[in-house]
Amino acid sequence: MILIGRNLSPFVRRVAASLNLLGLPFEQRPLSTVDHKPEIMGFNPLGRVPALVLDDGTVLVDSTAILDALDETAGPGHALVPAAGPQRRAVLQALALGTGATEKAVAAFTERDRRPGGLSWPEQVDRLSAQAAGGLGALESLAAASDAWLCGGRLTQADITAAVALDFCDLVLPGLTAGRFPALAALRDRANAIPAIGETRWRG
Questions:
Q1: Which tens digit of pLDDT belongs to each residue from 63-97?
Q2: What pTM did the predictor assign?
Q3: What SS3 state is found at 173?
Q4: Dihedral class, residue 118 (left if φ above 0, else alpha if ψ from -120 to 50, else beta)
Q5: Rounded CA gap, 159 and 18, in Å?
Q6: Which residues of the chain, if any, have pLDDT below 70?
Q7: Could you say which architecture CATH assigns to the domain 85-194?
Q8: CA of residue 152 relative to chain centroid, distance
């Protein structure tokens, strides 16, 4: 398989970490949506990352769809999202918080740092940042109430996505996260201590 995108993108990174954890071999092409737009559009007409080229040449886009396919490939005994029942719902709810916080952080960073000079909207940056903080705060509550992982005794996709979300926010919105989410930070550190996850951290 071929993973398209850089691990600077939290959505690419959670796919890379999941591939590692599931023991699925892949090649990564670290293409940037800023510098390699035509190449990326050859894989995804939306010009977004990640995209994943399967062994048969099929191209999957959007990290949620990709992760679902990886779980299917790995089988129910290894899938990172439970197949059914209350635990599945708990993981999906935590995932919604993690991906939502990440999306708002990306939008806040884009509004603040990617607009042409003078066109950034500070009030919108504050609004988006507050939404990201709300998602992280909800994950903080889940982490504080758990012994190790967010949704039970084993690591799931919720933990990967939460760890990646906090790392990304630390990188692009450090004023938002500094000292605010200690239980979530501890969970992130546990996740990053697993080489399959920690080795995907963006080093710049």
A1: 999 999 999 999 989 999 999 999 999 999 999 99
A2: 0.95
A3: coil
A4: left
A5: 11
A6: none
A7: Up-down Bundle (1.20)
A8: 20
Report the pLDDT value the prediction gives residue 118, as an integer from 0 to 100: 80
Cβ(99)–Cβ(136) below 8 Å: no
Cβ-proximal residues to 51 (8 Å cutoff; 6+ apart), any chain = 3, 4, 5, 40, 43, 44, 59, 60, 61
For residue 44, the tally of other CB atoms under 10 A from its CB is 19
Are 82 and 145 within 8 A, CB to CB? no
pLDDT score, position 78: 95
Edge-to-edge order in the sheet of strand 2-4: 27-29, 2-4, 51-53, 59-61
Residue with tokens 């029942």: 85
The superfamily in CATH containing domain 2-74 is Glutaredoxin (3.40.30.10)
pLDDT tens profile 52-63: 999 999 999 999
Please list, residue by residue across 115-132, b when 16 or more beta carbons sit within 10 angstroms of its beta carbon and e when fewer do. eeeeeeeeeebeebbebb
